[in-house]
Design a protein that fits this description.
Elements: H1 2-14, H2 32-35, E1 46-50, E2 57-62, E3 67-72, E4 79-83, E5 97-102, E6 108-113, E7 116-121, E8 127-128, E9 136-141, E10 147-152, E11 155-160, E12 166-168, E13 178-180, H3 185-191, E14 199-201, E15 208-210, E16 212-214
Length: about 230
Amino acid sequence: MNTLRSLAAACLLAALPGPLPAQTQGADLPSVADLFAPDAWGKSPDQLAWAPDGESLGFLWDDGHGDALWTLAPGGTPERRLALADLAAAGEKAPSLDAYSWLPDGSGWLVTAGGDLYLAPLGSAARRLTKTPAEESEAAVSPKGDRASFVRGHDLFAIDLKTGRETRLTRGGRENETLNGETDWVYWEEIWNRDATGSWWAPDGRRIAYYHFDERPVSVYPLIDDVPKNA
């Protein structure tokens, strides 16, 4: 995995034809040797994803000024699009970016950061969609780009990206018992090669197919038994 990430980052660097734009000048850009160093993990671009039109590549990268979402057009120069610090309210610590996905028309991204959802249009300030104690995950934008699905508390929800109105699609989700719209760790790691995708929008955006795991018949086995200190 490290090698693949490093190769992807090396390809990005090779695509730079000339001087870096103003926002990257002076940044401590990694060399090819840096990318293949034993401690290279975390220094290379992450979560590479092409825009729907294939004209721009999105990726996450820390240029020395904090994690941010960047884009790179083939033969062009990288552009810093969204800093995670921009998602934090005044006085708050910048959240970690868990995942992002392009909107179908390429006009921006749906971002999952710090367990909440944000809509980040190109050229505009990001708008927070959720603010709950529970974590939102497995977010997926509908084909028309008007809604998104996500998992909260092991149940599947949908949210209108314009109004922020939520619709609960499943009920009964419970840890280690019932999972909706997500996979359990065995299937995620051993069966589906660490692909956590658990739901899929229909092409017309009117329905969602999703995984439903009933784990109630499955026994729970401790991996570590704590030994009493006086034993």
